Amino acid sequence: MAKAATKRQVKVVCTLGPASSSPEVIEYMLKAGMDVARFNLAHGTLQEHSQLISEIRSLSQKLKRPVGILLDLPGLKLGRGDVQAVFGQHLDFALAENVDFVALSFISSVRQVREVKQLLRNTKADIPVIVKIEQARALEESEAILEAGEGIMVARGDLALDISIEKVPMAQKRLIKEANRQGKLVITATQMLESMVRSAAPTRAEATDVANAVLDGSDALMLSEETAIGSYPIEATETMVKIALEAEIMFPYEEILRSRWQDVLPEVNDAAARAVFR
Hints:
By secondary structure, the protein is an alpha/beta fold. It contains 13 helices and eight strands.
């Protein structure tokens, strides 16, 4: 197994599930390069998730490898009502577990994001909110949604069902570009290495898809079924890391940073930041 590189910029998010719930598998996934563990609260019980979060944190300390905890909240797909009714219980769980991020599912307006942020402020919580863009209405309001939250997830599976599959590639590029412009986190997700649910190696098309997501400007790449229920969760993690590292060699970081200074206003804080960069 390859040793996870410490200088990798793009992070790897791995969904935990039946295939990746044992301490042995989690330890190998951490060693392979898992940066963030995702928990899909649409499946399993809160007690099961709590126990697994504790296990991951224990292994993280043992290995001296930091790992973030992302809770994916089911949202309106599993219920109806206002934001408190839909997200309240899971937000309470996120606070109790002191997680690093929450992802909101099936958001259809920036208003809903602001209401969730208000719920968090009411409890004096400071948890970054990642909004999953998986509906046409959210796509239309993506700029405002990015401004309201801390980042987005390009959830390509459900988004394809809502806007048609041929529109997803351009939507992905637009969302990543807008997130980069605003300096917000963007995670590209869904079927990144889907064949690795059953196979120990990805297809060439999947490898290219992952590399292009890096070159588009993704901050993180997410594995879903590959690590949650697949037969090769460790290999999938390792493969994602290898492809990301290879793509980063070609990513024009310096060129992008230089070009962004053209949009910087001539203020004192910006001048100080420019001086640090140089």
